[in-house]
Amino acid sequence: MISLSFKGVILWHISPMPRASARSRLDRLDLLASRLKADEPMTIAEIASELGISARTLARDLEILRERGLPVESDRGRGGGVRLHRTWGIGRVTLTYREAVDLLVSLAIAEQLQSPWLIANLSSIRRKLTASFAPALRDRIEALRNRILIGHSASASVVQGFAVPDGDSINALFRAFLETRVLRFSYTDVQNRKAMRLVEPQLLLLNYPVWYVIGWDRDRDAVRSFRCDRMRFALVEEEQFQLRRPEIFDKAIEGVDVIKP
Fold first, then answer.
1. pLDDT at residue 258, rounded to an integer
2. What is the DSSP secondary-structure string of 101-154?
3. Neighbour order of strands in the sheet with 72-74
């Protein structure tokens, strides 16, 4: 603080808040917001003690959070409780690209099940969910929708030979599919013959519970379908591929009644 004398009048010049203090308040606000989102019962006195501030400072911080759009509710009195409004989380879910795709595929599968108590609302939920995404994410998901097909349940004979897919290979497949990268993997065919394959994963098809990847086989220079539970040791190549004309895959899904997520 610096005093200045001008014509016998003492003027006090207060220097701006130091950066450290400003950062300290921002950190405290972030911590306070995190504590509120934890949805644990807390009183004003408890939070003030935990943060090492007075009840008056806490009240000012809570007001700042309200101005930022966080619906903070508090009871009257020094010992009153503080919490977020019970509906605060609706519309505030942040999903990654992978999580958004997983959720949309799950909704598409539920629609295909034709459950009478679900089917009426699922299409509306899906539209609202898609509309809530950021434009860039929405564009990526929309471009992906035509590449994921949902069919009917697999036949009894197919289910009888179904095995739990290899988790690492499925993760590699999904990454290659999302990033349009070539995938190398070991595949066991119906005659139990094993061979390494180099494939462009163009489409995914679910005949519950069996997933198939429909792709362009680089070694055979043709469209081929692969059951995902027969894939092992999958590796994502650096090379990216271009999506091929949809009509060349018509024969691979011929006779399969599919819907798109």
1. 64
2. HHHHHHHHHHHHTT-TTTHHHHHHHHHHHHHHS-HHHHHHHHHHHTTEEE--PP
3. 42-43, 81-84, 72-74
Residues near 134 by beta carbon (within 8 Å), at least 6 away in sequence: none
DSSP state of 259: B
Mean pLDDT (whole number) for 148-164: 87
Kindly give the interhelix angle for 55-67 and 44-51, rounded to the nearest 10 degrees: 100
50's tokens: 């935990």
- Yes or no: say if 235 and 184 are a contact pair by the CB < 8 Å rule: yes
* pTM exceeding the 0.70 threshold for the entire prediction: no
Does residue 124 register a pLDDT over 50?
Answer: yes
Longest dimension (CA), the chain: 103
> Which of the 8 DSSP states describes residue 246?
G
CB 83 within 8 A of CB 42: yes
The Cα–Cα gap between 105 and 101 comes to 6
- Phi, psi for residue 211 in degrees, rounded to 5: -95, 140
Helix 44-51 to helix 19-37 angle, to the nearest 10 degrees?
140
Q: Are 73 and 27 in contact (CB under 8 A)?
A: no
C-beta separation of 25 from 65 below 8 A: no
